[in-house]
Each structure stands twice: as structure tokens, then as C-alpha cells.
Amino acid sequence: MSERILSVLVEDKPGVLARVASTISRRGFNINSLAVGPTNIQGRSKMTIVTELESVEQVKKQLNKLINVIKIVELDPENTIESEVLLLKVSINKDTQTSVIEKASLSGAKSVDVGSDYAVFEMTGASKDLDKLENLLKPFGIIEMIRGGRIAIQTKL
Amino acid sequence: MSEEKLSGAELVVRSLEYMNISTIFGLPGGAILPAYDPLYDSPIRHILARHEQGSGHMAEGYAQATGELGVVIATSGPGATNLITPLTNALMDSTPLLAITGQVASEAIGNDAFQEAYTVGLTMAATKHNYLITNAEEIPQILLEARHIATTGRPGPVLVDIPKDILNQKVEWIEPKLVDLPGYKPTLEPNPKMINQAADLIKKAEKPILYVGGGIIHSKANEELFELATKFQIPVVTTLMGRGAFPDGNELCFEMPGMHGNYTATTSIQKSDLLIAIGVRFDDRVTANPKFFAQNAKVIHADIDPAEIGKIREPEVPIVGDAKSVITGLIERLEGSDLKTTDWINELNQMKKDYPLSYIQEEKGPLKVPFVLEELQKLSDEDAIVVSGVGQHQMWISQHWNFTQPNTWLNSGGLGTMGYSLPAAIGAQAAYPDRQILALDGDGCFQMTCQELITASTENIPIKIVVFNNGNHGMVRQWQKIFYKNRFSASELTHHTPDYVALAESMGATGLRMIEKSDVKKVFEKMLEINDKPVLVECIVDPEDMVFPMVPAGGSNDVVILNEDDLKKL
Question: Which residues from A are below 8 Å from B132, CB to CB?
Fold first, then answer.
């Protein structure tokens, strides 16, 4: 099954997230990633939903039936810019400190807080690059990691 | 000059009046009490149900009979949770419903307050849309929006939840305006290109079938359908929700297909080369296993709800639009064409002769439901409204009653809600005080909502109820006979308790009973004479009877079980 990215423009009303999520889960589909945030238009939010489906046609139609859903676009991965934010807290000690910071910064992560026994990194980028950072730092002991969910935008007009 | 301030509760009542609502159904309680006070002075008729489920079905019956919005009002907590069945029922059968529920005060929401339930969350999947009002000023606007959503596009239930403090909040009346809902724009006019493609397929078809359902009735497209079918000689089958959309008795009408449909209707689809599906959703009770459904047919599927198209069967021609516009478009595009369907119609009529619906009513034997129904129809008015429960009796009514007009057949098709008949009949009678409203129910169904008989008596609603008493959950028993080796686990009720005649009398209705063939005519004559109060006829019928034809769930419509002997085919 292939990954599908739905970009859903919604009215910024209470309960809209629950309606969208329950419409998808009612059909037994898993959501791999979901990110919600405001848009440049007052009163409109955008949800980026990543799911694995044979066909999204029926889900799109069901979502379109929701009164608060305005527009749904399935993004073509070929013409899509994706981004995700990550915060990662990893264990360090005197011996590993330099190597951890070096590895992280070479991967494109920024150190935002460094203590004597931990470091926090922030990284924004494609999800697969965030995966790489996670794998790279795993041997040092990841204490906590949070990812913000994937957001995506079409490159063409 | 500023207008006089009104409470949220007064705004609710004034909004209902503003929308010309004349009758509502409900039951008061703590959180909704503020709204009941101004209702006391309002010309709106409030019918007090004995259970919120009953009030919901009453509103549905009102809506199904009139094609207009039904309104129900209930309190918070259990009042709202008791509405979930009628809301879901209305969602499945696309019935326009507005439910107004009281909620605990805003500051108590989420604190597990007395009679608190998360109504908006609980009814999210049971409604087309729902609202929680947070400011009394919004009340007129939201109620108007709610009506708009409930009654347009594919109709359905909308719930508006109002906290008690909002009902007591004093604000000014702001004239509601139907603003643009950016995410809700039903497509009514079909794409002409699709109509052309459909017309081209129809012109070439040799064995077309119009497969039509509830969408025709919602769209009030029965006259257009009649023109399309008769002008171009296309046979018609009507689904359970579409009974009455095309008149039974017409030579082109082959009535209901599907699990308990007649052989010809079910088989006509299997033999067809073109299904013209309008206002239907390829329900499993029609298609059986969709893999084997209409394998030789191309499909034109027109529906107002785009999510229905391609859900079960991918059509060759998808059409999104209102049934009336779709059919009008098809008639225009077909003008002047001469479909060669005479052989096809003859073939179906021969089939109808070879495989009739049949039953044997013995002179001294137990009463058979089909016989009783046919006798009742002979005595009742042409425009009588028949309201059914769910199960064997429902299937027999659909098979044996001649429906000639839309909105004369009310039943719970999608959800299959036992207990629907009696309260829905009350709703229909509230809309049409002078028409014959016949609640034809099973004993199992009747026992689920029979307290509403008191509502009918006290509100002077003279419905006519027939309880087909076979002492069993008949359809369950039928399945246990066929699929569970006659092990009648928890399906036996008893013929004797309650005493239905005494029960009716105790609830302020007239109670009558029929046992033998010779009783039928005279008891029904007596029943139909009583118009000043409800009347209940207990009709004792044979528990061994089974509904045929039958296509078992998940089977193929090519294998229709015609009678008990045929069960060996399974």
C-alpha cells in the first residue's frame, strides 16, 4: 500500500478535528501523521493527513460531506514539498558530548539546549531526514522525541 | 431604538415560529426547562411523548409523511442519549430532522454534572451535522442553518445542543440570514455531459431497468419518473425506501428487489443489460453479494450524495445531482427515441406470472399476514399511510401492499429499528389529522415503544394499529429455522402476555382482536369506523410462517429461495 497525502482545508470551528479523525477511523484506516494549523485566510485551518490506502476516493468523498470541510486535495508526491519539525532529547556525557553535537549538526539539526548530561536538538526537514537523525542518535540513548506531524504544499500553482 | 431583550429560550421558540414550524415532539427535563416556558404561550403544538426515542420517531414519521422538517426537543443527558436511535435512523433513511437538546450550564460542561452527557460528541456520527451554542445571540442563525442543512442536499438529522445558562441569557433578536456555508454546497444540477452519456447508453439498451429508491421521494420526482418510464417503456423496480415512488399495478412496475423482494424484480436486475439507478445506494439488502450483482449490466448511477457513487459498484456513468433534474434531463435527451423494450417487458411479465408471490389462507387455519394485509387494503383509503415496524411483517407489507403514491409508506429501512411503527404513525397523524394512518406492527416491535399508545390517546391522535402477534421475534425465528437448526434461542415471546386488548383499553385506546378468517373483515370495518381515539387490533398469526422469496445474506441474487422446499438449495 502506498502513502497518500491529503491536504484538507477546514473551517476553524470547534470539533472539526474530531469530525475529520472519526470519519477516517470509522472506515478502519490508520492515520500515519496529522498536522493542523492556521492558514493565511482568517477562520480557515489546513490539515495535512498522511495515510496508507489503496484508494482515497471514498474517504475524500466522506470527508467532503462534513459541513466544516471546505476543500480536499490529494497531493502528488512528485510535486510536493514536505516538512516536519522534530525535538529530540538525548543523553550525553563528557566522552560523547562532542561526537553527539557533531553528528547532529552535520545532519542539519540545531542544538537548542545542552546540559551536563543531556542535549536537546531541533530539526526541520523532510521526514526521512528526521528518521536519519533519530537512527544516528539512537545509540547514545534518546530520552524523549516529539515530531510535529508532516505538512506539505504543492510546488505548482 | 433598541429592541426588547429576549432570553435564549424565547429565541428558540421564536425561531421555530419564524421557520413556520407548527408541530414539535418532545419531553421536558431540567436543562431544557427554560425552553418549555415560552412554549407554553406559543401556537406551536407540542406533543408530549412518553420516551425520547418515541418523540424522535414521531418527528421522523412527521417528516417522512410530509417531506418536511420534523422537530424534536429533549433535555440533556438521558434525554439526549435516548435520541441517538432516532437520529441514526434518520441519518440512514435521509430524513430531515432537527433535534434541540438542553445541556448543563456552560461552566458545568465536562464536570460530570447531573444529567450531563457529551451530546455533540455522542451524536457526531449519528447526525449530518451538530452544534453546541455558546452565545444566545447565535440561536436564530444556527437554528436556520440547521434547518437548511437538514432539508437540502441529501436530507438528514441535525442536532443543536444549548446549555441552560444560554437558554436564560438575555439578548436581542438578530434576524437570521441564510449565509453561505463554505463547506456545504450540494450539487443539484447534473453535468449535461453525463446526462448525454447516460441517454446514449439508454438508447442502446435492450434490457434496461430503472432501479429507484428513496431519493425519488425526497426529490418529489415521482411524476418525472412516471413520464420517463412510461414514455420510453422502461421497467421499474422500487427499493424498500422507494415503494410508492412508482405506482404498483402499473404494467412497468415490478416492485421490490432484494433479500425478500419478489423473484421478478430481483431477477430482472440480474438479466438486465443497463441499470439506471436513481436515488439508491446499492444497499446489501438489494445487492446481496455485490460481486454477483447485475453482472451483465452497465450502470448509470445518479445520486445527490457523491459519496454514494462508486461506494459499492463503480458505474459506467456517474451522475451527481437531484433526482428530479436528472430525470428531467434524461427525458429531454431521450425525446424522440424509440426504445425496443417490448420483448424485455413481455419476458418480465411472463416471469411475474410464472413466479408469483403466493400464500395459502386456509378457511379454518391460522391467519396469514399477507391475507390480512390484502383484506385491510380493500377496506382502507387510497391515500392511507402505512407505517411499519421491522421484520417479517415489514417485508410482507412491502410485498403485498399496493403503494400507488409517494410518502404513503413509512418504515425504518436502513437502520432496521424495531419500535419505529407506533411513534412514527403518531407523527404522521399529527401532520395529517384526517387521513387514515395505519401502524402495522409485529408483537416484538410493538413491545419496544408501546407506551406511546398513551401519547396517541391523550393527544387525540386516532391512529389504527394492527399488531401481528405470532408470539415470537418472527424474523429471528425464521433465521434460526434456516441457519441454526431450529434452536430457538431467545426468540420466543408468548402469544398471551400481554393481553393486547386489555393493554390498549388501559391506555385509552379501543382494543379488538382477530383470530380467524371470518373475523378479518368485520374487525377491520369496526377499526376503520373509530376516528375519535386510537384503536388497536391484535391479529393472531401463525408463528411458523416464513417470508419468501429469500436470498440469504451474502448470497447471490441468481439463487432465489422461493419457498420452504427450495431451502435445500442452500
Answer: 14-15
Helix (H, G, I), strand (E, B) or coil at B129: strand
Query: Which set of grid coordinates corresponds to residue A100?
Result: 553527539
* Homologous superfamily of domain range A2-75: ACT domain (3.30.70.260)
Residue of B120, B183, B306 with shortest CB distance to A69: B183
Number of Cβ within a 10 Å radius of residue B559: 13
DSSP code per residue over B285-305: HHHSSGGGTTTT-EEEEEES-
- Which helix (H) or strand (E) segment holds residue B325: the answer is helix B323-334
Minimal CA separation from B26 to chain A, in Å: 27
Of A17, A63, A65, A72, which to mutate for an interface test with B (greatest number of B Cβ within 10 Å)? A65
Q: By three-state DSSP, how is residue B118 classified? A: coil
Write down the architecture of domain A81-154 according to CATH. 2-Layer Sandwich (3.30)
Rounded Cα distance between B510 and B530, Å, is 8
Residues of chain B contacting residue A17, judged by C-beta atoms under 8 Å apart: none
Interface test with A, best of B124, B134, B138, B313 (most A CBs within 10 A): B124
ipTM above 0.95, yes or no: no
- Residues of chain A whose pLDDT is less than 50? none
Residue B522 burial (C-beta neighbours within 10 Å; 0-12, 13-18, 19+): exposed
Three cell numbers at A83?
516538512
pLDDT digits over B110-123, tens only? 999 999 999 999 99
Q: How far apart are CA B428 and CA B407, in angstroms?
A: 10
Do A52 and A4 form a contact (C-beta atoms < 8 A)?
yes
Q: What is the DSSP string of B70-89?
A: EEEEE-STHHHHTTHHHHHH
User: Model confidence over B547-565: pLDDT tens digits?
Assistant: 999 999 999 999 999 999 9
Angstrom distance (rounded) from CA B263 to CA B259: 10
Determine, for residues A67 and B184 on separate chains, whether the beta-carbon distance falls below 8 Å.
yes
Neighbours of B128 (CB within 10 A): 24
Instruction: Give the three cell numbers for residue B287.
Output: 445487492
What's the gap in Å between the CA of B147 and the closest CA on chain A?
13
- Which amino acid is present at B61? G
Q: What cell does B541 get?
A: 398469526
Domains A2-75 and A81-154 share a fold: yes
CA nearest to B120 within chain A: A15
CB A61 within 8 A of CB A9: no
Domains defined for chain B, CATH in brackets? 6-171 (3.40.50.970), 192-354 (3.40.50.1220), 369-540 (3.40.50.970)
d(CA B458, CA B538): 21
Suggest the residue from A16, A61, A72 to mutate for an interface test with chain B (most B CBs closer than 10 A). Answer: A61
Q: Is B303 left (phi over 0), alpha (psi -120 to 50) or beta?
A: beta
Pick the catalytic residue from B475, B507, B527, B550. Answer: B475
Return all residues near A21 (Cβ < 8 A) that are at least 6 apart: A31, A34
Domain borders along chain A are: 2-75, 81-154
pLDDT at B570: 81
Query: How confident is the model over B339-387, as pLDDT tens digits?
Result: 999 999 999 999 999 999 999 999 999 999 999 999 999 999 999 999 9
Q: Are B111 and B76 in contact (CB under 8 A)?
A: no
Phi and psi angles of residue B513, each rounded to the nearest 5 degrees, phi first: -140, 140
The crossing angle, in degrees rounded to 10, of helices B517-529 and B369-379 is 40
The whole-angstrom distance between A43's CA and the closest CA on chain B is 11
Do the Cβ atoms of B307 and A11 come within 8 Å? no
Confidence of residue B1 (pLDDT cuts 50, 70, 90): very low
From CA A45, how far away is CA B129, in angstroms rounded? 19
